Amino acid sequence: MLRPVLTSRVPVAAAPQALLVLATALVAGCAVQPARAPAPVAIPAAYSSAGVQGGAWPAQDWYRSFGSEELDSFVEQAVRNNWDIAAARARILQADARARQAGAAILPAVDGVGNASFLSGHSGQGSGHETDWSAMVSASYEVDFWGKNRATATAASLQADSARVERDTVALTVLGGVADQYFQVLALRERLTLARSNHEAATKILEAVQARFEAGVGSPVEVAAQRAAVHAAQIAVSDLQLQESQARAALALLLGRAPEEFTVSGQSLDPLREPAVAPGLPSALLTRRPDIFMAEANLRASSASVAAARAAMFPSLSLTAGAGLQNPALPATVLTIPGVGPSFALTASLVQPIFNHGRLQAQRDEAVGREQELLAAYRGAIVASLVDVEKALSAIDQLRAAADAQQGSVSESERAFEGAQLRYHEGAGDFLTLLEAQRTLYAARDQYTQYRLARLQALIGLCKALGGGWDAAAARS
User: Fold this and answer.
1) pTM of this structure
2) From edge to edge, which strands make up the β-sheet containing 109-123?
3) Residue 28: is its pLDDT beyond 70?
4) Among 1.20.950.20, 1.20.1600.10, 3.40.630.10, 3.20.20.70, what is the CATH number of 44-116+130-476?
């Protein structure tokens, strides 16, 4: 799959070209060979973790499966306005331009040339002057015997493909970040609501403790402890307000907007739904991850660059032809044909590098080293993609296993707090039991919100790890 096809087309022979082929036959055994395909990376037959059951491979609009219209609108804004995506689009324009530049070397170059010279002189024989001029059309062409120009064009074209896939990789990262940051804002707002409720409950308990103290059935230690609990609840509210503001600003940055006028309507995670996403087979991941495709395109481009660097060490033949009008019709050092007339010139240039202090060999070695680097990067991208999927699936499995425990913790904490509060008001319970029940209930509710956020983040991670519905065919558009 990674073996570039490098062809060298020798033009049908005119006599001078046939002589050139003969002259270079001695080095024909050193002709450029295509790069060898890398050893394949071992792919497991199945994932270790089960993940979501009964789902499907994520679609390109995977974010819509969470059921939030506000999230959908934020993703659309990010596609239009995110600066990282805009920079990736600009890199595509640059790569396309470089590909066109490299491809232009395969075809002949045609130029229009005009010259005019006025000559005047004086000697003992007299004086004279003349005006020499020419108007020519010139065409030049480098015969690509060893495939250097074609290999360079192939490398540039593959790098343009890589730039397109890089855009898709950046977009997938940004869109995943938008969903993740949006869910964090909602979770922080939900936790903030719980913290305020906890503060209100602590304040009401303080009023009851204060009333008991004033009635002579309470102690000042209980009053001080509950006041400390109220202050701690207020500190938690302030901390969550700061975190929510920072998360909202981070979300605005992903959307390419200023945070000052940016608002989020959602208040909790309750309206969201969890999509069912199936991981499929590990082998299918190689065709659905844009980063793997980008690493492959870079590797193939480096193989073509190695071929071009090797071809640069062999002879090069350049042909130049010019035709037009000039005066005099044929200038020469000794003889000049005067008058205006048509002119034609044909030049062939053969260059063989002999000594350049190892520059060409060093360029070849650099290209080989770059190819080896990108081969390692390609293999690493495959393994990293498998790790990403396994981590997401493992997180989903563990969170699913803890679902009953999380819900049971909240339910039992609510029952314990209600019972402790009732017993304390009736004088049958002690203050420490009530205080501990309050702390336990708040911690359980806050932990449950974070648990729900972790489930959503794990699903986002799985959608991203599976390529987010990326399509290799659409990457060329």
Assistant:
1) 0.81
2) 109-123, 126-143, 316-327, 341-351
3) no
4) 1.20.1600.10
